[in-house]
Amino acid sequence: MAVRAIEVHEYAAQPMEQARASTSTSVTDEHSLLAAAIANALSACGCHAQVTESLGASTDELVLTTALCDGDGDGDGDGAGDGADIHWRAMLQAQAFRAAGGKSLILLQDTGGQFHGGPSQGWHGGMAALARTASLEWPDMSVRCIDIAIDPDDLASTAQRLLVALKSTFPVLGVDLAGRVHCLQAGELLSQPKIHDVEYSATRASDVWLVSGGARGVTAACIEALAQQSSGSFALLGRSIPAEWPSDVALTDDVKVLRRLLAANALAAGDKPVPKDIEQQARQLLAGQEIRDTLHRLNTAGVSAQYYPCDIADQQQVRETVALVQRAHGRITALVHGAGVLADSLLIDKTQGQLDRVFNTKVGGLKNLLHALPDTSLTHVALFSSAAAFYGNTGQADYAMANEVLNRVARTLKLRSPNAIIKSFNWGPWDSGMVDQTLARYFEERGIGLIPVQEGANLFAEEMLAGDHRIVELLVGDPWAG
């Protein structure tokens, strides 16, 4: 299984050549002062440039400043809510520009010019994933992302540094305040020792691990591998409320068998089985049994494990559940955020409801967890991101953006807590979980192997307990073809 660090590399900047006078560029006005400075700088280079409030006007090139706006003004520097509104606005503008026949789209964000930090602390940092996915779905269109560090006291110089970035051929790049150009790239293959040969860092019996989405699926497998090599307590969060298994139904993990058993029971009781109700009951029963099985395996491994029903998209529920966990187990010292949902469709067809559903769990959930936890007290943080964020993926623009936000937030957390082990795992497709037979064939056709569950779980444990502390972003699995 291939494992690489995602690294930030610096490249020599090149001077801006004179632009063709025929180029028509519009700059959106979300950051109105910078937009004006950019338009002035482009005009000085021979472009026909203007600031626009509407995408109705015909233009060859569009520069989006959407992700540069501040959002809710609550003073915490993290913008509007979980950033879903800003990412949706950027997607909506991209859709409109595509429909209007646009040729070149440039998405701006400010995560410090080096893909960490910046005013939004990473929460507005999903533009690179939007650019990557749009490039796959719209191959006849140029789509780029530029991470431009903004100097609010010298927007003219900021605009000039943007011109340097526009000269580069990299589809995703950053320019910092010193004018240095940076790119995100996958590093060399990392050698991974076998799990039994690893010398693990010490963990304490007082450690408390808070895990979202940790009672089921691949996240549960990763936590079980972690528990084999660590100590402490594990509090697993999930939306499911475990349903007790009916005493008159034989235990099974096969949903088709369970449907038949439940339907037969309904008929025997003189009721008419309703397929929708039978399906819902079967799913609830299997989820409850999986949760109980996970807790049993964790307790058998010698750690304390408890499940807490909690919708992490609900800030109040998260706050109350975190308080409950800490009263029962002590101060939370480690966070694993593995929850996530999909809402796949082509970018041109994406709806705000789909994006909100993905962001509410993946990004909003993380934000709620971090708000309930002082991150400076955490010794370990693991975020389950996706290789879709690094490569882009057809039909998953929202999912790719949400996971790219996790990557950017992870780097910001590392800046604030340099001694903590903070890792964002850009997982390829697993041989389990969200990957059904149709998706498995899709990846197979692209030459992308599925990650074996036990192998991936062992890697997770190795990285969290014995990995290089300096590496924050990991790309796990086969490279994705375009």
What can you tell me about this protein's structure?
This protein has 482 residues and is α/β, with parallel strands linked by helices. The protein has 13 helices and 15 strands. It has helices at residues 32-44, 84-99, 127-137, 155-167, 217-228, 255-268, 275-300, 315-329, 352-372, 387-391, 397-416, 437-445, 453-466; strands spanning 3-11, 24-28, 48-52, 61-64, 104-109, 142-148, 172-175, 181-189, 208-212, 233-238, 304-309, 334-337, 380-386, 421-427, 473-476. The longest helix has 26 residues, at 275-300. Mean pLDDT is 90; it is low at 71-80.
Write the SSE topology.
Blueprint: E1 3-11, E2 24-28, H1 32-44, E3 48-52, E4 61-64, H2 84-99, E5 104-109, H3 127-137, E6 142-148, H4 155-167, E7 172-175, E8 181-189, E9 208-212, H5 217-228, E10 233-238, H6 255-268, H7 275-300, E11 304-309, H8 315-329, E12 334-337, H9 352-372, E13 380-386, H10 387-391, H11 397-416, E14 421-427, H12 437-445, H13 453-466, E15 473-476
Parallel strand pairs: 2-3, 2-4, 4-5, 5-6, 6-7, 9-10, 9-12, 10-11, 12-13, 13-14, 14-15
Antiparallel strand pairs: 1-8, 1-15, 7-8
Can you name the CATH architecture of the largest domain? Answer: 3-Layer(aba) Sandwich
Quickly give the structural class: alpha/beta
Strands side by side in the biggest sheet: 3-2-4-5-6-7-8-1-15-14-13-12-9-10-11
Average pLDDT taken over every residue: 90
CATH fold naming of the largest domain: Rossmann fold
| Series of H and E elements | EEHEEHEHEHEEEHEHHEHEHEHHEHHE
The description of the largest β-sheet is: 15 strands, mixed
How large a portion of the residues is in β-strands, by DSSP E? 15-25%
The figure for the number of domains is 2
Just give the CATH class of the largest domain.
Alpha Beta
Q: Assign an overall shape.
A: globular
* Range of helix content: 25-40%
Query: CATH-wise, what's the superfamily of the largest domain?
Result: NAD(P)-binding Rossmann-like Domain
Low-pLDDT residue intervals, each spanning 5 or more residues: 71-80
Distance between the termini: 20 Å
Counting H and I runs of at least 4 residues, what is the number of helices? 13
By oligomeric state, this entry counts as single chain
Q: Please compute the radius of gyration using only Cα atoms.
A: 24 Å
- Kindly state the number of beta strands: 15
